[in-house]
Amino acid sequence: MDSQKKFWRSLWQLRVPNKIKHFMWKACNDALPTKENLHRRHVMDSTTCDLCREHLEDTIHALWLCKDISCVWSSLEWFHQAILVQPANFRELLARFRPCQDEYKVEIFVIAAWCVWNRRNALHFNRVVSLVTSICREAVFRASNVAGVGVIFRDNRGDPIGAMSMPVPFGQSMVEMEALACQRAVQFALEIGLTRVVVIEAFLNGSGQLASFENILGDIRFQAACFQHVEFNYISCACNSVADALAKKASSALVLQEWLEDLPDDIAPLVFREVH
Ligand SMILES: [Zn+2]
């Protein structure tokens, strides 16, 4: 009884919105409307998961085991460690994360599980969904309430000239975060005296939401006019691993860090790998 009480108390004490706590309570009690549960209540004939179309969709499958969402749980090492022995149900899985009170691990896990469930529902009703690969990143930002901006400038051979890692408060959208990264990149280039730059960024693709941060874009245009030559190109985060790693470093270190020519030991190998 004591361990039961402790389990539920720790669930209600999580630093996440109440709607996510209620979602976790339902998931732990197998009360989510999964296909298996709807079938049991004679609401649905099929029990097969709509995403992988291979397995029965119960709670642990929908939120953890389905191969359609495997990239969410393989993206952080400590998620991966939890899967070494398959949990029997969702409650057992959550209990594995419970003892880690540091670094918002439980919160990141429950927010990611909640995003996975929302995505599953959105797909079920043919609504637009965000990329499954961005779920983990968004959960980390939401849990810590901090996002990171990572900037790296290289010369024409690919060698680093300067790099920066800066925490920023978690904003309204990922697109806005990317706009802030671009603004900071342009400022940083001016500060270190670059005159001819190509800014490679991820946010330029999100033109639909530009109105909400027009002031940031105005500032970028104003500062960019100081360069002899400036070009903006789009690239996906997955192809910009150094900037991505610098951004992640910012959201864990929580302080602004800058480097000129030399890079921190954990980032330098990534530069080498990206160039060669
Ligand atoms: Zn599945």
Describe it for me?
The structure is a single chain. With 276 residues, this protein is α+β, with helices and mostly antiparallel strands. It has two domains: 2-144, no CATH class; 146-275, Ribonuclease H-like superfamily/Ribonuclease H (Nucleotidyltransferase, domain 5). It has 13 helices and five strands. It has helices at 2-12, 18-28, 35-40, 59-65, 70-74, 77-82, 90-97, 105-124, 135-144, 174-191, 214-224, 241-253, 268-275; strands at 146-154, 160-169, 196-201, 229-234, 257-260. A three-stranded antiparallel sheet has the order 1-2-5. Helix 8 (105-124) crosses helix 9 and helix 10 (174-191) runs parallel beside helix 11. The chain is elongated, with a radius of gyration of 22 Å. The N and C termini lie far apart (58 Å). 30% of the residues are buried. The model is unreliable at 204-208 (pLDDT under 50). Zinc ion binds next to loops.
Strand order of the largest sheet: 1-2-5
Attached small molecules = zinc ion
The helix-strand sequence is HHHHHHHHHEEHEHEHEH
The structure class reads alpha+beta
Percent of sequence in beta strands? 5-15%
**Low-confidence blocks of residues:** 204-208
Question: Could you give a short account of the major beta sheet?
Answer: 3 strands, antiparallel
What sort of overall outline do the alpha carbons produce when their principal axes are compared? Answer: elongated
Domain count: 2
**How confident is the prediction overall: mean pLDDT?**
81
Helix proportion range: 40-55%
The helix tally amounts to 13
Whole-number radius of gyration? 22 Å
Total DSSP E strands? 5
Distance between the termini: 58 Å
